[in-house]
Amino acid sequence: MTSARIADYINANQFDEPCLIVDTEVVRENYLSYAHALPDTRIFYAVKANPAPQILSLLAKLGSSFDCASMQEIEMALAAGATPDRISFGNTIKKERDIARAFDAGIRLFAVDAVAEVDKVARAAPGARVFCRILCDGEGAEWPLSRKFGCATTMAPHVLGTARDLGLEPYGVSFHVGSQQTNLDAWDKALAEAAWVFDAMAQQNVYLQMVNLGGGFPTRYLRDVPATEAYGEAIHGALIKHFGNALPLTIIEPGRGMVGSAGTIRAEVVLVSTKDVEFDVRWVYLDIGKFGGLAETMDEAIRYKIRSRRDHDEMAPCILAGPTCDSADVLYEKNHYPMPLTLTVGDEILIEGTGAYTTTYSAQAFNGFPPLRSVIL
Which of 36, 62, 170, 243 pairs as cysteine with 160 (C-beta 3.0–4.6 A)? Predict the structure, then answer.
């Protein structure tokens, strides 16, 4: 839902191009919700979700740590006020020179998922802590992750054992249950795998300390999602189930769940047309599409809540598309989207729940369109 502060800003301003407006008060509320639901877990905000300096500074002041995917994101987190001990280099695919730069900046926590990555960390960041990411199937996620990141659970002891042999500190295990995960049991299955790795390493006299529970925490789009408290209860129960009284240190990496609900994109209708007299489903073209920041509509995985001032009129299904000269720039075609029949050129459109993964997915100048503008309140 668009916050009152965002609605006031939109009503008070004129727009020539699509614009994302983010309410930092909603970000604050989301952070406090995670801290309350998982009080014994450290929060590492996934910077890639929205790296706006105002958001990073707010979270740093609230006590958040940061999950960074690149040296550039590390520099952003440091500039926002985070100390090196509150930063994780969480990408498992890193250039060795970036590992060295991060180490020189004081970063001591690195993700790995392969022996070759361990070799790089050992050379560039001697003595650093490493955690091994294991694969998850992502069942129940609206935006499932591929096998690009993570290794088989049975390989993790070898990866962590190699880290020990090369002078690194095997610190823990991480996983990601898939983005926009609405299945509360997803963490139970993943924690069972993590506990197996802990046991396997203990047999090598290596005692891991930390489980990185990853991201996956959702924001609300068209469908309701479980409350943050429900995730906290499910995760706590799974931890006790698989680790008993020897609970590990835990961290989470919310991105979408932290900032998604804080943002609304103000866009407008560019064209309403039909393609065939025998096919009466309208095509509604907006001034924003996949290349303007809505890349997560790929395969129609994420269905945003879209509102207009005409929503009290009769609705009918339509095909929603973006403005660029690329045939892939269609948002919803397989599953038509209901929009007012009275919708016309120039009408204002609000796309809600867009605070995450929109500015960072926006193309620099595809077809000459400028990147998505952002206003942080």
Answer: 170
Q: What pTM value is reported for the model? A: 0.91
Residue 136 a catalytic site member: no
Ordered mean pLDDT values, 10 residues apiece, the chain (377 residues): 93 95 97 94 96 97 97 97 97 96 97 96 97 79 62 93 97 84 81 94 95 82 77 90 93 93 96 83 94 90 92 94 93 94 96 94 83 94
CATH number of 24-259: 3.20.20.10
- CA 313 to chain CA centroid, Å, is 35
Catalytic residue among 19, 132, 318, 325: 325
- DSSP E strand boundaries for the chain: 19-22, 41-46, 65-68, 87-89, 109-112, 129-133, 141-143, 169-174, 179-181, 210-212, 249-252, 263-273, 282-286, 305-308, 315-321, 330-340, 348-352, 373-376
Task: Give start-end residues of each CATH 3.20.20.10 domain in the chain.
Answer: 24-259
